[in-house]
Amino acid sequence: MLYNFFRAYPGAEDIDFGSWTFFAFTGMLIFLVFAWLWIQWLFLDFSFRDLFRCCGSGSQKTNKEKQMEEVIHRQYRDLGPMSFAEKGVLFFFVTLALLWLTRKPGFVPGWGELPFFEPKYVTDASVAIFITFCLFIFPSRRPNFLCLRANGDLTPAASAPALLTWNVVQHKMAWNVILLLGGSFAMALGAQESGLSFWIGQQLRPLNSLPPLGANIICVLIICALTQCTSNTATATVFLPILAELAEVLHVHPLYLMLPATLMTSYAFMLPVSTPPNAIAYSYGHLSMKDMMKAGFLMNLIGVVVCIFSVSTFAPLTFGTNNACPVWMNSTRCVMEKLLRENITTAVTD
After folding, report:
1. DSSP bridge partners of 139
2. Pick from 212, 214, 213, 234: nearest CA to 223
3. Which of 135-144, 219-228, 270-279 has the weakest average pLDDT?
4. Vertex 332 angle, CA 327 and 336, to 5°
5. How far is 233 from 252, CA to CA, in rounded Å?
6. Nearest CA to 261 among 190, 298, 310?
7. What phi and psi, each to the nearest 5 degrees, are found at residue 162?
8. Which one, of 101, 126, 104, 116, lies nearest residue 21 by Cα?
9. Residues 209-218: tens digit of each pLDDT
10. Which site in 74, 78, 159, 196 is 20 to 30 Å from 266, CA atoms measured?
């Protein structure tokens, strides 16, 4: 979404990790609770008394439940204590999250706004590259030289492999995802440069007769239907420029349409081809296509409600989507409104 948004509006304010978290976190929790309750009821036939057994008397655990609990505890004990490499990965993961959250929190100046950084010089991608670089350097075993050597370690000093090596990256990296992203960006750019996005946006002009909320619901439902059988990345990359053009036609803030559409591309639960996690769950053979469609249909509807709720409640506070003409938007209507305000101000002053 950021690529398409800043390409269409280069002067727009940055969307940082903290503001995105504030916008999406509550909706994520709401969706998680509803999805959990729905799947529990659909496949496990639970009762609230059994589900929240810790809060009341409840029934006794069956032998099968006790056996399953023992298997989980045994597998957890077999993991043993955290290794040096696991602690290192945990440290860099926490560091990554903290750097993302504190780069530009919004309510206080962040480290990305320090005087020696040029405006928009440091982004979330800069943090990710820095942490990746550290993973290529940090050792996967405790060094055994000088004061870093563990007590009782008499092994000769030797180098230790890094937490991340290029051999691992070469074999584990999802290169197909990178090619998919690149192809999606190329397709979106072709649609934008050829004028296809503008043409489709103009064809959707009849939506102007609807209130913005109604038009937004229709757009989210269209994205919801398409993302069931296409890649969520490709769907978002192709349709977001169209929604940016449509926002100017409807005279609303571009993010008012782009934010829920971006979220909705990830709410694809009905078919195995919708997302890789769906394919993994289906590949075990315990779920039929009917089971996935029955469970996914309501989850998709819940996703639509959550997306509309988030963009109506938190987007105005975080991104100012209640302002149809932000200062960086140069649509014809916004330019005319700015000129009209300037003329009125000049006339009042004179």
Report:
1. 162
2. 234
3. 270-279
4. 75
5. 24
6. 310
7. -75, 165
8. 101
9. 888 888 899 9
10. 196
- Contact between 88 and 140 under an 8 Å Cβ cutoff? The reply is yes
pLDDT above 70: residue 89: yes
For 165-199, write each residue's pLDDT tens digit.
999 888 888 777 677 667 767 776 777 778 777 77
Confidence of residue 305 (pLDDT cuts 50, 70, 90): very high
Residues 6+ apart with CB under 8 A from 297: 270
Query: Nearest CA to 309 among 1, 25, 16?
Result: 25
Average pLDDT, the chain: 81
Q: Which amino acid, residue 138?
A: F
243 touches 257 (CB < 8 A): yes
Residue 13: pLDDT band with limits 50, 70, 90 = confident
